[in-house]
Specification:
The chain has 704 residues and is of the alpha+beta class. The protein has 23 helices and nine strands. 44% of the residues lie in helices and 13% in strands. Strand 5 and strand 6 (89-91) form a beta hairpin. Pfam families: CEP104-like_TOG, CEP104_N.
Length: 704
């Protein structure tokens, strides 16, 4: 497994006095990184000397949020010192001064950085480059900078952090081992581990977690690996849970540390003192609550660690947590805790020159919310969902109000909150968090609450949202839960979806554009589930699609039919292709052909789909396609033959087309016989009419 390789910066073309290149040698929340001098000339060069010769596997580069280089060239190098008495070359040590003229570098490649304007210059890009090279020097050649509103006329580039991951090569014999001496097991192990490294050596961890907490997490991770080898699985589970909570708390402590530094730099010593007291109190409560000392077992094995349910966060297979109390604050400057997530703290709150006058760090001055609850108060098994009495049927609650029985099973990530911004606004945090829970029982309860909210919705109340907004929010939630692998969750989602698209849409007369958008959002997920290898999901998804197509207000939108009859561009999974072909055959049987061009039910649509299905590798799909084409040949023989290859061009060895053309010939013979019989009947009618009406000048011919 790769490990972090320490280095020192031995050369930089230029640097800003406030941001020296030596800042790149350390990682932590308060690190500002290196910046070149203003009006610098390009390329800018950085040379790093590794603490020992190493085989590198990954190079990580954390860019600045708005002072961004365009490209960075990576070079690996060796320094060859003077010859000793024996004629051998001596390599420079980590502490020696280096003559760069004697260093030799090889180009590895280059990486291109993003402009970052899409994030408003409030996020940092982390590049992780996989390499496979050996050396003792690394050179970064930085070319130009992106011009933006914050860095328009300044020829300046910056890097916040650099991380080198690899294996130290201490033994010269190991470095020069020939291929014939490497065993098969060593080769397999090398291939397996060459790209693996601990997540606690990643820049995403080391730059945003409190340094003291980082050390504790690494110790606990080492203990966890030992516990697994010793088959102490209860102990390993407790360590895993504590590591998760420590990481979240470490991010919060890092935020406090930066706020303390900001207050001290502004000479606001009272606030800096309060932050220090807050940090110390929180840290002590955290370590005491998590029983960190007991889990680390400094004096040998602790029997309580091997007993299930003794450590907070673990109770059987479920986790129930309660919040730590806030440390007391004495100043009125402290504000109400603001709810924020990790990605908010470390991406959206990065500073730009517009707000550097107000804030010289990476975070705002708002008091943060404490991390998620950690422990159970009673040592008893608890269920993941504790139900509360259902409200009376007569009473109606607003969709944004918390529904009865709703709990907060877990905190949502920032990405999830951005996705669910509308559902949170409409249905509230409690219900949406249940829909995003990883516990299937909690998710089922959320779907039931959503069903009840939709069925109880009454239009016209000033306090409630319009039905179109309710529909959009519900379809966003169902689009997510329809992907769930648990059948009970998927089945409940389908039931809710049918109610939303049928009863709710008809009852509240949703506009066609709104209904069409919702269908286009969910239909691709339904189609993919119709090809699921699990027979239950496959059947439920297919029935749902046909059920929605049977609804008059949905069918006139032509969304489902046009998607189903879309021809196959490439070979798809046999199960998915068969389900789609069977549904198209069902459409043709139940609804026939339509003259509307964009309905997806025209003869041309069916023929093109059938011809594309004939090219699928699955025999069951081709049989359905043959039935569709033969059915259409009775009414549109010319159109069918136009879309198929000519009969004389088909190879005799192609059994499928040969049998298909034989069926066409048989149908043609039947049609010609019918026409011949019809002609004979018509001639007899004409003769009879002439004999009975000699004086008449017109003959009535009945329709055949």
């Amino acid at each position: 497994m790769l490990e972090r390789i320490n280095f020192r910066v031995i050369h930089a073309t230029s640097e800003d006095p406030s941001f020296p290149s030596s800042e790149l040698e350390r990682h932590g929340p308060g690190v500002n990184g290196w910046r070149s001098a203003k009006a610098a000339t390009f390329p800018q060069e950085l040379i790093l000397q590794l603490e020992s010769r190493a085989k590198l596997g990954h190079i990580q580069i954390l860019a600045h949020q708005y002072i961004i280089p365009e490209t960075i060239e990576l070079h690996i190098g060796e320094f060859l010192g003077e010859q000793d008495g024996s004629g051998e070359l001596q390599q420079s040590t980590y502490s020696n001064k280096i003559d760069l003229d004697k260093a030799h570098f090889i180009l590895l490649g280059h990486v291109t950085m993003a402009r970052n304007d899409s994030t408003g210059f409030k996020a940092r890009e982390l590049k992780s480059i996989s390499v496979e090279c050996r050396g003792s020097l690394v050179k970064l050649l930085i070319q130009n900078n992106y011009s933006n509103k914050y860095c328009r006329n300044q020829q300046q580039v910056a890097l916040v952090a650099i991380n080198l991951l690899g294996e130290k090569l201490e033994d010269d014999d190991e470095m020069t081992k020939s291929a014939s001496q490497i065993t098969f097991e060593e080769m397999l192990q090398s291939e397996r581990d060459k790209s693996l490294f601990s997540p606690y050596d990643d820049l995403a961890f080391t730059m945003y977690v409190d340094i003291e907490v980082q050390d504790l997490i690494r110790k606990m991770d080492h203990k966890k690996q030992e516990a697994v080898l010793d088959e102490r699985f209860d102990y390993a589970s407790k360590l895993k849970s504590s590591i998760e909570h420590l990481r979240k708390a470490g991010e919060l402590l890092a935020k406090y540390q930066l706020e303390k530094q900001i207050a001290a730099s502004r000479e606001d010593f009272q606030r800096a003192k309060e932050k220090k007291t807050q940090m110390d109190t929180y840290r002590d409560n955290l370590y005491k609550t998590l029983r960190v000392k007991q889990l680390l077992e400094p004096n040998g094995r602790v029997p309580e660690n091997d007993e299930p349910g003794k450590v907070l966060g673990i109770s059987g297979m479920t986790r129930s947590v309660t919040e730590l109390s806030l440390p007391p604050t004495t100043s009125s400057a402290a504000s109400t805790p603001a709810e924020s997530t990790t990605s908010e703290r470390f991406s959206s709150r990065l500073t730009t020159p517009d707000n550097e006058k107000k804030e010289s760090g990476y975070y705002s001055n708002d008091e943060p919310k404490f991390p998620p609850p950690l422990f159970i108060k009673k040592r008893r098994p608890v269920t993941s969902v504790e139900r509360i009495k259902e409200p009376k049927e007569d009473s109606y609650t607003s969709p944004s109000a918390p529904c009865a029985g709703c709990i907060r099973p877990s905190n949502m990530s920032e990405r999830a909150r951005r996705y669910a911004a509308l559902p949170i606004q409409v249905f509230g945090d409690a219900l949406v968090e249940k829909m995003f829970s990883k516990n299937f029982a909690v998710k089922e309860d959320g779907l039931r609450c959503l069903q009840k909210t939709l069925s109880d919705y009454k239009r016209g109340d000033k306090k409630t949202d319009p039905p179109s907004k309710i529909f959009r929010a519900a379809s966003l939630l169902l689009q997510r839960t329809i992907k769930d692998t648990i059948f009970s969750v998927f089945n409940l989602t389908i039931q809710t979806l049918v109610y939303l698209m049928d009863d709710f849409a008809r009852k509240h007369r949703l506009p066609a554009s709104e209904l069409s958008q919702g269908l286009e959002r969910i239909l691709p997920e339904l189609l993919s589930k119709s090809g699921d290898t699990a027979l239950g999901k496959n059947k439920v998804a297919t029935e749902c699609i046909l059920k929605l197509q049977s609804c008059q207000h949905v069918r006139i939108l032509h969304v489902i039919s046009s998607n189903l009859t879309k021809p196959f561009d490439i070979p798809v999974h046999p199960r998915l292709a068969q389900s789609k072909a069977e549904m198209v055959e069902e459409l043709l049987t139940n609804y026939g052909l339509s003259a509307e061009k964009h309905s997806g039910l025209t003869a041309r649509d069916f023929v093109e789909f059938g011809v594309s299905a004939l090219n699928q590798p699955s025999e069951s799909v081709r049989r359905v396609a043959e039935r569709i084409i033969i059915s259409l040949y009775h009414t549109h023989p010319k159109l069918v033959r136009q879309n198929l290859p000519l009969e004389e061009d088909v190879s005799p060895k192609n059994v499928q087309y040969r049998q298909l053309f034989q069926q066409f010939d048989k149908i043609d013979k039947e049609v010609s016989i019918d026409r011949k019989d019809g002609g004979m009947v018509m001639n007899s009618i004409i003769k009879e009419s002439k004999s009975t009406h000699q004086m008449t000048s017109s003959v009535y011919i009945p329709k055949i």
